[in-house]
């Protein structure tokens, strides 16, 4: 039944895109949401803006550009705790639907819901320049700081860029059962502390082949992920399991009711900073075809015992190249276990214990990377490298500051690492 459901979703998106093409002459509107707007009398025009994103999201169609003016927006409906703002619309490759903070502003979206903003059953939607927060709420037997920041569900060609997501009790930015997801240049800080379902800062869970293509399909690039940690145990197992900076989780689709079909796409995790998270810095679990390149991981594993800066488990076709990983005292710089034959690593700088098969080789050098000013708080830290750092010779640990000189591919992209 789930396999049929996935097919129906893809068919719905295809039909919606065909209908959208038929009405292409009506696309490309400039729309506005503002604190002084009105959902009843507004039209979305600059001089008659809407008041809430929740209402504006119901009006969007292919090519629309929705500008959110500076201000605070408390979104949601007490009778609908699923999402404060729900976006369910289909754009096109040549007519993206864009939701963005006004230039020079960072409007704040707050919701008491499982997601402050969620894109579902959608395609070609981009969200940028927003600050996202959540508030406690009660839903059934659950109560407290449960809400996630920004999410995508059963969607393809989705981009989250330049957002600030912090203080959300659930995950920061996530995508579930989705494809072609870009999570780029976001700040994701202090999330995942109150949700019993064990969330993380940034996560891709059970990616699906909604639009198969070669090269990379998912990009997690240039983000700052700090202070995300689980504090509330799982509601069934009573254990803490996540609170990672970044996780690519169960791309093999082994969990739940199915369909149990492994994702065939490739994911690039590059130039991110993961510091002071409760779980692992970067974790690839039950997933294949993932390249982890040029990231900086420092002082993670604050809550979970034996949570490594770089972690790969029960996965294959994973490469870890030119990363810098500095563990907490007595902690793990890297843990690689129960892997396939196509996992490899090279040119990493590792400061801490290492658990990995001997057949993989050293994977780089074991040394202090010599950060200029390491700190779990990214606003107080400077993870630039001292001129004497061994990372320079390897080209390792570029982190978010390298983004200006190394833009990510805008489409599928050529794989950075040949297999």
Number of helices: 3
Using the coordinates above, name the CATH class.
Answer: Mainly Beta
At CATH level 3, the topology is Pectate Lyase C-like
The rounded distance between the terminal residues' Cα atoms is 36 Å
Q: Structural class per helix/strand content? A: mainly beta
Instruction: Bin the helical content.
Output: under 10%
Tell me the count of domains: 1
CATH architecture: 3 Solenoid
User: What's the rounded overall pLDDT mean?
Assistant: 90
Based on Cα principal axes, name the global outline.
Answer: globular
Radius of gyration from CA coordinates: 21 Å
Indicate the proportion of strand residues: 35-45%
Number of β-strand runs: 36
Low-confidence stretches: 1-25
Q: Main β-sheet: number of strands, strand sense, barrel status?
A: 11 strands, parallel
Adjacency order of strands in the biggest sheet: 1-2-5-8-13-16-19-22-25-28-31
Describe this structure in words.
- The structure is a single chain.
- The chain has helices spanning 2-22, 53-57, 391-394, and strands at residues 30-33, 65-68, 72-75, 83-87, 97-101, 108-111, 115-120, 123-128, 131-134, 137-139, 142-144, 148-153, 156-161, 164-166, 173-176, 179-184, 187-189, 202-205, 216-221, 224-226, 246-249, 266-270, 273-275, 282-285, 288-293, 296-298, 310-313, 316-321, 324-326, 332-337, 344-346, 348-351, 353-355, 364-366, 371-373, 382-385.
- It has a single domain (2-25, 56-402), classed as Pectate Lyase C-like.
- A hairpin with a 2-residue loop joins β10 (137-139) and β11 (142-144).
- With 419 residues, the protein is mainly beta.
- Mean pLDDT is 90; it is low at 1-25.
């Amino acid at each position: 039944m789930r396999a049929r459901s996935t097919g129906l979703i893809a068919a719905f998106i295809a039909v919606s895109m065909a209908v959208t093409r038929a009405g292409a002459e009506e696309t490309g509107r400039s729309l506005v949401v503002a604190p002084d707007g009105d959902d009843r009398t507004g039209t979305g025009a600059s001089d008659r803006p809407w008041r809430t994103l929740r209402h504006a999201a119901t009006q969007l169609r292919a090519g629309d550009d929705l500008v959110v003016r500076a201000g605070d927006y408390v979104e949601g409906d007490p009778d609908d705790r699923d999402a404060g703002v729900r976006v369910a619309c289909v754009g096109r490759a040549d007519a993206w639907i864009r939701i963005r903070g006004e230039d020079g502003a960072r409007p704040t979206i707050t919701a008491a819901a499982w997601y402050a903003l969620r894109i579902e059953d959608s395609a070609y939607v981009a969200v940028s320049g927003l600050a996202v927060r959540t508030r406690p709420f009660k839903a059934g037997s659950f109560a407290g700081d449960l809400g996630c920041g920004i999410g995508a569900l059963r969607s393809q060609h989705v981009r989250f860029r330049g957002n600030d997501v912090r203080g959300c009790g659930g995950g920061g930015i996530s995508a579930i059962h989705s494809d072609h997801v870009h999570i780029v240049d976001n700040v994701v800080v202090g999330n995942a502390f109150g949700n019993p379902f064990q969330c993380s800062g940034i996560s891709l869970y059970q990616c699906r082949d909604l639009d198969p293509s070669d090269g990379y399909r998912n990009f997690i690039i240039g983000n700052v992920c700090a202070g995300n940690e689980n504090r509330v145990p799982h509601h069934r197992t009573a254990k803490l399991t996540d609170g990672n900076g970044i996780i690519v989780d169960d791309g093999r689709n082994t969990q739940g009711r199915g369909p149990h079909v492994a994702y065939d796409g490739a994911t690039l995790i590059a130039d991110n900073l993961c510091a002071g998270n409760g779980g692992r810095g970067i974790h690839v679990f039950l997933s294949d075809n993932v390249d982890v390149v040029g990231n900086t991981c420092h002082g993670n594993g604050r809550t979970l015992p034996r949570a490594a800066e770089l972690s790969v488990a029960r996965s294959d076709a994973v490469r870890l190249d030119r990363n810098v990983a500095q563990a907490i005292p007595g902690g793990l710089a890297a843990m690689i276990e129960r892997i396939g034959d196509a996992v490899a690593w090279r040119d990493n700088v590792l400061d801490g214990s290492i658990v990995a098969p001997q057949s993989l080789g050293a994977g780089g050098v074991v040394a202090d990377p010599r950060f200029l000013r390491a700190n779990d708080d990214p606003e107080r830290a400077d993870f630039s490298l001292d001129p004497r750092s061994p990372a320079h010779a390897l080209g390792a640990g570029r982190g978010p500051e390298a983004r200006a000189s190394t833009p990510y591919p805008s489409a599928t992209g050529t794989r950075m690492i040949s297999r």
